[in-house]
Fold:
Amino acid sequence: MKAAYIRETGDPTVITYGDLPDPNIGPNDVLLRVAAVAVNPIDTYIRSGAVSMAADFPYVVGCDVAGTVVEVGPAVRRFKVGDRVWGSNQGLFGRQGTFSELAAIDEKWLYPIPPEMSDNEAAAGALVGLTAHLGLFLHGHLRPGECLFVNGGTGGVGSSVVQLARAAGAYVIATAGTDEKVEACQQLGAHLAVNYRDDRREDRIRAFAMPHGGIHLWFETQREPTFDRTISLMAPRGRVILMAGRQSRPQFPVGPFYVKDLRLLGFAMFNASPDEQREAAAALNAAYESGAWRPHIGAVMKLSEAAEAHRLQEDNTLGFAGTLSGKIVLNP
Ligand SMILES: NC(=O)c1ccc[n+]([C@@H]2O[C@H](COP(=O)([O-])OP(=O)(O)OC[C@H]3O[C@@H](n4cnc5c(N)ncnc54)[C@H](OP(=O)(O)O)[C@@H]3O)[C@@H](O)[C@H]2O)c1
Structure:
């Protein structure tokens, strides 16, 4: 099979697109004919070596996948040959990744694709949709009528947070870096979208949030959180989610935090159990079917362009290039 793989960690040029042996399936595995994959920031951290999760080399890159079942192991119960499925959480903890024509994946990480959903949408929504859902509901306990803030409302995670929070009955505030992206945030469902480069952004957020009592759930997608600013905008007993910035060591205003009875919540989606991820996936499928959630696709490329796709993701996540709005999807 053709695959995008690495034999050593390094910059995007370490990715080779070439032939590898077809994978063997275990008893609980499903063999997929891959139709689409999507890039996530963590793919680039693993490829670069910043996060040491690359399995045995050659290591196929990538977490997200959508495809069709072509073979099932003897213990597989949920899927049969011909089913269209999506999944994430591959390429982690010793598992091989998804950027290949065929992928052997334990059925516990796979979910049916709704009939109306394209393979590209299914791959694009995988890791970011699960992350948004787990953050908002498993960890953040978002309730209808609460005020939700998210930075980067057109980003991979942010665009799902905006849509899912709006569908859950929250008042949604999002930021973005250009006027076009501010408008896109509104189209995705944000009640208030502000340009994060606007000097008046804080006043505008405060004016919107304070009639609701402040921000009840702050979903921070940035690697360098600004706690003084965040805490001043929070409602008493509000929750702040941190989910990015492994190297980040920001100053923390302890006094303003505790006198408001605030809570700080951290999570990484890959720590969620297969049952927790399956529950989130079922909710995402239902949200897709009801029209409440559409994965936001920013670029579609060929699998053979995996190295360029990594560079584009990296330029944006680490380099703040602002040239991407949504997910990069690749097709074999
Ligand atoms: N803990 C977990 O389980 C988990 C899961 C997924 C992702 N993550 C992490 O979460 C982060 C976001 O991931 P992603 O896939 O959503 O990345 P992404 O698609 O690259 O989105 C990044 C977003 O950040 C916005 N942004 C850039 N500079 C900003 C600023 N100064 N103020 C406010 N927003 C700004 C961008 O907005 P513009 O495009 O408008 O500039 C963009 O929307 C990454 O660091 C990733 O590693 C963690």
Observations:
- The two ends are 10 Å apart (CA to CA).
- The chain has two domains: 2-125+296-331, 128-269.
- The longest strand covers residues 29-38.
